[in-house]
Amino acid sequence: MNRQYTAPVTTAILVVNTLVFLLIAFQSNAEQSRLIDLFGLSVDGFFEQKHFWQPLTSMFMHQHPIHFFVNMLALWSIGTPIEITVGRARFTWLYFISGFAGAALMLLFPPAINAAGIGASGAISGLVGALAVFYPRATLLLFFVLPMPAWLLAVLFGGFSLFAYIQDFIPFMGHMAHFGGLVGGVAYSFLALGLKVGGSHLVESPYAASRSAVSNPFGNLTGKRKTEQQNVSELIRKAQQSYQERNQQDSKSSGGATAPGSIQSTSPMGTSSLTTDQVPPISPADVPPATSRSSSGSPRQPNPGENPGDTSESKDNNSTGSDSTGKASQKGRLKYDPQTGHFYYE
After folding, report:
1. Which of the residue ranges 1-10, 114-123, 271-280 would you say has the lowest mean pLDDT?
2. Which residues pair with residue 146 across a beta bridge?
3. Which three-class secondary structure state does DSSP give residue 342?
4. Which of the 8 DSSP states describes residue 40?
5. How many whole angstroms separate alpha carbon 248 and alpha carbon 297?
6. Which residue did the predictor score with more confidence, 249 or 288?
7. Ramachandran area for residue 211 (φ above 0: left; ψ -120 to 50: alpha; else beta)
8. What domains can be seen in the chain, in order of their start residue?
9. Distance, C-alpha 286 to centroid of its chain
10. I need a labelling partner for 64 at 20 to 30 A (CA). Which of 10, 215, 258, 293 fits?
11. How many CA atoms lie within 13 A of 261 on its CB side?
12. CB 260, CB 248: distance < 8 Å
């Protein structure tokens, strides 16, 4: 079944910007100037007149149509995949933290022209920084013409913003707001979200699922990053299942074609042999806990007043300190080396 993924926060921000733009457009020139002085971001308005709402309200104001349409196109193109990647709540934090970071830097380093700054450029610059973190090899079009990877665009954009501010190039633009938003977006992506290549957060993204019917507009790079981690998770599940089955077989009979305590685990690099004292009953987030079974092989229900996880079998294992659990618990957490195809303890 085809699933359609939407970006409601991105859509809501776009709608609010559109409504505010239309509201300003239908005002007289004098009224437009008054609204911009009151709700636009300026050093005098924020520090002297105590208009502390300006960092927020200025993010939703646009006066000129070209400025508005370019920002909204960038918001929709970049904001949609980022919101689907990190989720609604994190995207909201990312957007506003980037906007506030840009506003803070603009107040500390105001432009040469003493005028109120308006526009969503600072927050959208943060989305560019986040895109460079999540999809560094994603191809973007500079000036809608020149293709380049997202990481390079972010570096060039940040460098140009600093250079333009120092040289007073295009002085009516808020270059430091752009630079501050870019830095804020990158910092939030790395520090607050804690996302990295192979991180578990991106596994939950619908763009990371190769079987998803929705096409990733950035080449499904997340899916490629996650392939190895998905393989490791599958191997851990298989090892856990084999470990449980071997315990059940050993409880019935001590003989068999395979030596007791031996498990064969298949990996992308080949087949590795593991023993039961090397495979602890790991319980990753995506592996359901093992069900205690009686000697007949069927799940044993807990007695009245007994803890559901406290079965006779688990009591025996804990009291005897068997090699299958006691030794494993002393060795640390099970890890997997994709280069050799073997498990090891950390």
Report:
1. 271-280
2. 142
3. strand
4. S
5. 7
6. 249
7. alpha
8. 8-219 (1.20.1540.10), 224-302+310-345 (no CATH)
9. 18
10. 10
11. 9
12. no
Lookup: tokens for 6? 């939407």
Q: Residue type at 29? A: N
Q: Looking at residue 271, what is its pLDDT?
A: 43
Pairing of strands 139-142, 146-149: antiparallel
- Look up the pTM and report it: 0.57
Sign of CA dihedral 170, 173, 178, 180: positive
**AA letter at 36:** I
Q: Which of these, 133, 115, 109, lies nearest to 182 by C-alpha position?
A: 133
Q: Which contacts of 262-265 are long-range, i.e. CB under 8 A and separated by 24 or more positions? A: 263/239, 265/235, 265/238, 265/239, 265/343
Range list of H helices, the chain: 8-25, 29-39, 43, 54-57, 65-86, 88-108, 121-134, 150-166, 175-187, 200-203, 221-252, 312-320, 328-331
Name, in order, each residue with C-beta under 8 angstroms of 132's C-beta and a sequence gap of 6 or more. Answer: 150, 151, 153, 154, 155, 186
Q: Could you count the other beta carbons within 10 Å of the beta carbon of residue 116?
A: 21
Cβ-in-10-Å burial (0-12, 13-18, 19+) of 238 comes to middle
What are 315's two structure tokens? Answer: 């009591």
Beta carbons of 171 and 113 less than 8 angstroms apart: yes
Question: If we measure between CA atoms, which residue out of 150, 152, 148 comes closest to residue 135?
Answer: 150
Whether 168 and 96 have beta carbons less than 8 Å apart is answered as no
* CA nearest to 140, candidates 148, 128, 131, 132: 148
Give the model confidence (pLDDT) of 123-135 as tens digits.
999 999 999 998 8
Q: Which amino acid is at 204?
A: E
Q: What is the DSSP letter of 311?
A: -
Tokens at 334, concatenated: 């099970």
Torsion of CA 146, 152, 155, 159, to 10 degrees: -40
